[in-house]
Amino acid sequence: MWWRAGRRLLSTAEVKRHRPVMKLENHRPVVQNDTWVAPNAAVVGNVRLGDEVSVWYGAVVRGDPNFVRIGPQSNVQEKAVIQTVETVETGFPAVVDVGECVSIGPGCVLRSCTVGKNVELGAGCLVLDGALIEDNVKLLPGTLVPPGGRIPSGEVWGGKPAKFVAKITEEEARRFFCLASTRS
């Protein structure tokens, strides 16, 4: 309800503050104490964030209608979107499962896919329904992994659609990927 008081507009409507972590229907996100979610990011529904995960400004992680899991020491950078679909036509799981030490670049979109550990997704990558990205992979910025696509372990891929670019050397692997998977 609005009314005028002199030259100012006044409202009786309650001002709502954005909550970065929100319950959806009967699902409340599970967020660890050492996880950071930016004030204007959204983590909604059936989502589980592992230890030391960070969800940056403007990112959206939606656990509806299926489950989203993001492994320890992973990050979801600015304006990235992670979402699920109800079912995947190929029969692959319709959940999003992101492994340990994954860097999801700004503006990436992940939809009902599986991402292994020690993966670097460049800015603006699209990983679509039923896609599988194995461990120790780097996707160049703007790469499109089509529905049901598979990126083998230890390789660099790029393009629309994704094509093999190079093998990852041991030196590159040490430089690119975190060593959290070696901790005991």
TrEMBL record:
CDD domains assigned to the protein according to its UniProt record, in alphabetical order: LbH_gamma_CA_like
Top-level taxon of origin: Eukaryota
Name under which the protein is recorded: Gamma carbonic anhydrase family protein
UniProt organism field: Chrysophaeum taylorii
